[in-house]
Design brief:
about 190 residues; mainly alpha; about 5% strand; elongated; 7 helices; two-stranded antiparallel sheet
C-alpha cells in the first residue's frame, strides 16, 4: 500500500501524546485547518492500517460517563517512520480554488456574478483568518510549555499571511472588475 500523507499527519499528532480519533480530527481542523484537512471518514481506516502495520497501538479507556474510548499511541516503529518521512523532500504544493476557475471563465458570466463569488471568498477568508488568529493566541499562551507550539506558530504565520493576502486580492479584484465594467460601458 502506498503511503498517504494522512498517515504522517496522524503519526505526527500522536508523537506529541496519545489521542482518540475524535481528538485527532479536532486537532487537524483547528491547528492545521489553514493548510491541511483530513475527512473524518479517513481517520479510522488510517488508524486501523497504522495499527495493523505496528506503527501505533490502541487501548480502551472508560471515561467519566462509563463509555469506552479508543486511545491511540505511536510506537517506536511509528516514530522511525515519521522521522524518515520528515527527512524526505516535501511534495509540491497544490493550489485548488474553485472560485478562481469561475473567475477564469468569467467571460461566460456577468461581472456582478463574479464579484459575488469574490465577496463570498473574502467573507470565508475573513472567518478563517479570525480562526487562525484565535488559534495563534491560544498557542502563544503555551509557547514555553512545548517545543511543538513554537513550530505550530510558524505554520500559522504563513496561514495568516496567505489569508490576509487573499483578502487584499479580493478588494483589488472587485475594484478592477468595477473599473472594467465602466470602461466597457456595461450596466451593473
Amino acid at each position: 500500500m502506498k503511503d498517504s500523507t494522512n498517515e504522517y499527519v496522524i503519526l505526527g499528532i500522536l508523537s506529541d501524546k496519545p489521542r482518540t480519533g475524535y481528538e485527532i480530527q479536532k486537532l487537524v481542523k483547528t491547528s492545521m485547518g489553514s493548510f491541511w484537512d483530513i475527512a473524518y471518514s479517513q481517520i479510522y481506516p488510517t488508524l486501523r492500517m497504522l495499527e495493523k502495520e505496528g506503527f501505533i497501538t490502541k487501548r480502551l479507556e472508560t471515561n467519566e460517563r462509563e463509555q469506552n474510548r479508543k486511545v491511540y499511541s505511536i510506537t517506536n516503529e511509528g516514530i522511525l517512520k515519521l522521522q524518515g518521512w520528515l527527512k524526505e523532500a516535501a511534495k509540491p504544493e497544490t493550489f485548488k480554488f474553485e472560485v478562481l476557475l469561475k473567475i477564469a471563465f468569467g467571460d461566460q458570466s456577468s461581472e456582478d456574478e463574479i464579484i459575488k463569488h469574490i465577496e463570498e471568498l473574502k467573507a470565508r477568508t475573513i472567518k478563517q483568518l479570525e480562526n487562525i488568529l484565535s488559534i495563534e493566541k491560544e498557542m502563544k499562551t503555551h509557547l514555553n510549555e512545548s517545543e511543538r507550539s513554537f513550530f505550530s506558530i510558524l505554520t500559522i504565520s504563513l496561514g495568516k499571511n496567505l489569508h490576509r493576502s487573499a483578502i487584499e486580492w479580493a478588494d483589488s479584484a472587485i475594484k478592477l472588475i468595477e473599473e472594467h465594467k465602466q470602461k466597457s460601458g456595461k450596466k451593473p
